[in-house]
Amino acid sequence: MKAAKFDYVLAESIDQVVDILDRGDGDAIVIAGGQTLMPMLSMRLARPATVVDINKIAELSGIDVAGDEIVIKACTRQAAALASAEVQTRLPLLAKAIAYVGHQQTRNRGTVGGSLSHADPASEIPLAALAMDAWVSLRGASGTRRVAMADYFLGPMMTARADNEVLLSVHFPLPGPDSRIGTGFHEVSERRGDFAVVAAAALVQLDGDGICGHAALAIGGADSVPLRMAAVEEALCGSKVDRDKIQSALGEIDDALTPGDDQHASAAYRRRVAAVLAERALMEALSEAENA
Amino acid sequence: MNVDRNLHYVATKRRVREDKRFVTGQGKYVQDVNLPDTKHAAVLPSPYPRARILSIDTAAAEALDGVHMVLTGAQLAEDCNPIRLGLKLPEVKWYALAVGMTRYVGEWVAIVVADDAYIAEDALDLIEVDYEPLDAIVDPEQAFEDKELLVHPGHGSNVLYHGNFLWGDVDGDFAKTDDSLRFRARWGRSSTVPIETFGALARWDEGTEILDIWASIQMPNFVELMAATLGYPLNCIRLHQDVDVGGSYGVKRGIKQSVLVGYLSRKLRLPVRFIEDRLANMAGSDAHGPDRIFDMDVAFTRDGVIKSIKIRALDDAGAYPGRAPFQLAKPISAIVGPYKINSVKYEAISVCTNKSGQVPVRGFGQAPTNFMIETAVDNVARHLGLDRLEVRRRNLIQAGEFPYQIPPGSKYDSGDYPTVLQKGLDLARYDELLARRDKARSEGRLAGIGIATVLEPGGGNNIFEYLMDPSAEITTFMEGCEVRVDPQGNITGIMGTTTSGQGHETMMATILGEELQVDPDDIRIVHSDSLNALPTRSPIASRMAIMLGSAAAGAAGKIKDRAMAIAAHNLDRPLEQLEYAGGTISDRNDPSRKLTWAEICFIAYRAYHKLPDGMEPGFQAQYIMQVPGGGQLPDENNRVQVYPCFSFQAHVPYVEIDPGTGRVSVLDYAIAHDCGTVINPDIVRGMVIGGLAHGIGAALYEKFAYDEEGQFLSATFADYLMPSVHEIPDVKDIEHCTPSPLTSHGQKGSGEGGYLGAPAAIASAVNDALHPLGLNLSELPMRMSKIEALINDGNS
Fold first, then answer.
1. B176: part of which helix (H) or strand (E)?
2. DSSP characters for B448-499?
3. Which DSSP symbol is given to B706?
4. Between chain A's N and C termini, which has fewer beta carbons within 10 Å?
5. Which stretches within chain A are classed as H helix?
6. Distance CA B397, CA B394 (A)
7. Nearest-CA neighbor of B295 among B320, B276, B315, B279?
8. What number is the average pLDDT over the span B20-24?
9. Cβ contacts of residue B607 below 8 Å, gap of 6+?
10. What pLDDT, in 10s, does the model give residues B530-569?
């Protein structure tokens, strides 16, 4: 488990990163926290010609509140995001999700952008971002573009980011000031800190009469990408929501998922447990919204 | 044995001397031994479970700058013998590299030696192997039946061992008894997976014609196997036993790794180091544990008194069995557990399949056997609608019945099982635990309490080998200890083997200090190398406290005898009139007439004219301990004393299961433990709790999985799941002491610790939780997906 030879560049600017990626012709790769890339390099599953280290670029790190959104820059550590008061109070679903990411030790190194770029289908940060209608900012040689989470995940470990683009930041829209919002995040893994076998992220917004104005449900680990459950969301919106309503809406979840089998769980397990966790996440979100 | 006397150091909470070097990073492992010009090796794994090797082209790899050699199995087989197996299976040829055929995914096909490990791996990429993939033999039951598809065609079948044992009138007992039941239990393919993989460093010295080897080894016969494989005389190989071994519990038997570096070092005339990386270790190290299917019949009265058992154990040894089949034989020493069972039928089968080979794992087959016995007791209780504790109480051997001889001939040395069980229940606050379980159930949760009462045979003995192979007339499993007193009077104890974290240095110093009335902190303990070691069988089989401990006491006794003889001669007093106190020897009637330790040492080393007639100068002693109660061949009914000492433990865990996901949480754990006299409380406690964590892994998480085609699925820690601190609850533990009459201070074995009961206990708890649903599971590991399917999918 020794990496194949590669060139290492400690980048000083985003321009330099973009330049190296562009010239790299698909053979250059960005390293941030290294929590997935390092083992992949060691096992020679990744054999880039060049590894560009973005850890020293100050503009790629930090959390900003900008008007109606919170911007988390790509190289922000997961631990820093979790500890952020802004994230805790204004992006509670993200905070709940990050608490499930690995362990304190890995979160000290792992970055928010790294999770989004790696795009494991069972990963927590992509799942929460998808449920929260976040979008990412990608910078390439020809400029910067924005991609919504709904269009970002293309398959297991595949995203809309081109090889010559670098992820700059992820943008979380903030709800209006008088929203009654609740969130829920539930996952199951054999051991605490493992990749989820299945995970569910939910967000419920109620109006003054307790009518559901907006609902989001995203399921991870039960398909090749994290998925929003549009039919469930539609079934919940526009009426009062309770457990019966949620259970009946979740009848739609089966058709929306195409889980795989592996040694840890069967496809049937993932289907059944997706519904169980979705119900728990929605109930938690509902209860929070009702008490908001 | 004398446990009534006033102990100063034994059984006293004292610092574990090894902790200092490990905690401060001063341990010295194979990786830390640096020799000039050392070269590094890397291995090429087979991607196929079974394939013919048509050709291997190593030219490009050899041409790479920095590469010294590429070795394939064909070349190795020309120069070396196959590695000797435990059973005599001449057509099961085990080489360090695949020869002509690969037999499992990850088997090493070639090895590269290069200037560094990076270059070595670069070279692996350049080796071209032309394989012809073949169908693999994966299922052990099919392997047992199959006559066509064979892992080792020359052997003629996939069966490595098939034996039947009968102790007592099983048919009669089944006929006479009210009721019986039959069940199947399955122990999954897990192991001990230490943080340090196997590593070895070898240097052939042409000047002395000695092959020096440093290896993270824990096994008897290592040097003998090396010598036999390489074709050297035994005294050409010197194993340096003063390297720390970073975890083992049975698995550090890197004979093929050591043969490779030994061979390459002599070929290249350079030191060669091979440290397995995690992938090579998990897939290719031949270090998987037992993988066992038990079919069991139990005959019992309507009161739950178990009279007789029939066991069929089918074990999957993988492609290269090593000593694996013997892991079916050792448990014969405690095959009825702590229970009074009248007769036993035991059918033991070991088969090979296209999987990584099997290695001894903590308990040498006892943990799976204990899981089976405890499952049987729980099943009897459930079948009769009786309380599991009550059924155990009715079957446990009672305190007044020792030594207790079980049907296969072993006598349990001592014990008080009902009292230890009660201590465990008290520690768990059993009544409160029942209330907690029932409250959880009334709130709709699945909750269960586990019970396991199990034995840990300790002390080792090779005689089980004879039960499988009567040509193996091996009736000793000795351990030697040497004690040297230097001219200044300092004491050094010498052990003849390695240590892999069990605290042997503390144990030995404690016993020497106790016997010689010297502060153990002032005693040095060193490890001899294999060429100047006394006879040893290495620190396996929960034997070192029993064997090395008793040998240390014996050697200390000889030192004391020598001092007394010198004193008697110089004080001109009869021995009976002299008293030894902290090294000073004085006349009981006239304490002013005495010889100090310094004076005795001076006489021993310098004053020959003051030595008793015929006494050799110098001050040292050796003692070789024979296994207590061993030394016999089995009688005509295959009855024999296998291990000498029997520790006991009672486990009481509490679990809850999430019915929606099947996930098990171990919320509480109490264990009461009796290993006789505890020499060092912290060491024993570490064994108990560490072993318990290991057992929770085997019960719920750990599995080396293969798919139906034989692909290996558990090559990393993302897929081979070991419990972390989050999965292990705070454990409450208590010791009880029933001294062994067979050892120097009443000590028994404790190294296998909680591992011998935790899998059974957790399985019992899970099944207690599933019981209200009418469900039962008897397959380890009890993964959450399996439990969830049982609960929520009637078809699974």
1. helix B170-176
2. EE--EEEEEEES--SHHHHHH-TT-------EEEEEEE-TT--EEEEESS-B
3. B
4. C
5. 14-24, 37-42, 78-83, 85-90, 92-98, 104-107, 112-118, 124-131, 149-152, 230-236, 243-249, 253-256, 267-290
6. 9
7. B315
8. 95
9. none
10. 999 999 999 999 999 999 999 999 999 999 999 999 999 9
Question: Could you read off the pLDDT of B667-688 as tens digits, one per residue?
Answer: 999 999 999 999 999 999 999 9
Residues 240-279 of B with CB under 8 A from A: 277-279
- What 3-state class would DSSP assign to A143? strand
Looking up residue A145, the CATH number of its domain turns out to be 3.30.465.10
pTM: 0.97
In a domain, A1, yes or no: no
Q: Which residue has the tokens 């009890």?
A: B782
Q: Determine phi and psi for B550, rounding to 5 degrees.
A: -70, -35
As a whole number of Å, the end-to-end CA separation of chain A is 51
Q: Which fold has domain B292-463+634-792?
A: Aldehyde Oxidoreductase; domain 4 (3.30.365)
Answer yes or no: do A48 and A67 share one domain. no
CA distances in angstroms from B582 to A287, B321, B487, B563, B585, listed in the order given: 73, 51, 17, 12, 8
Q: Establish if B150 touches chain A: CB-CB under 8 angstroms.
A: no
- Closest among A130, A180, A157 to A45, alpha carbons compared: A157
Paired tokens of B264: 């390459």
**Which residues of chain A make contact with B444, given a CB cutoff of 8 A?**
none
Distance CA B788, CA B796 (A): 9
Give residue A238's region: left, alpha or beta (phi > 0; psi -120 to 50): left
Q: Distance between CA atoms of B595 and B174, rounded to whole angstroms?
A: 69
The verdict on residue A58 lying in a domain is no
Q: Judge: B719–A191 Cβ closer than 8 Å, yes or no.
A: no
**Contact in structure between B282 and B715 (CB atoms under 8 Å):** yes
Residue in A191, A193, A268 nearest the CB of B701: A191
Residue A120, H or E segment:
none
For residues B537 and B460, is the Cβ–Cβ distance under 8 A? yes
The bridge status of strand B411-412 relative to strand B404-405 is antiparallel
Residue B768 token pair = 């207690």
Residues of B in contact with A271 (CB under 8 A): none
**Top-level class of domain B33-134+198-275:** alpha beta
Helix axes B784-792, B758-770, angle to 10 degrees: 20
pLDDT given for residue B795 in this prediction: 56
Question: DSSP E strands: which ranges in B602-749?
Answer: 620-625, 645-657, 664-674, 731-735
Whether A191 and B713 lie within 8 Å, measured CB to CB: no
* Amino acid at position A184, single letter: G
Strand ranges across the sheet with B584-587? B578-581, B584-587, B590-595
Query: Which residues, at least 6 apart from B430, have a Cβ–Cβ distance to it below 8 Å?
Result: B449, B652
Distance CA B240, CA B499 (A): 12
For residue A76, is it within any domain?
Answer: yes
Asked if residues B571 and B595 have their Cβ atoms less than 8 Å apart, the reply is yes
pLDDT, one tens digit per residue, over B268-317 is 999 999 999 999 999 999 999 999 999 999 999 999 999 999 999 999 99
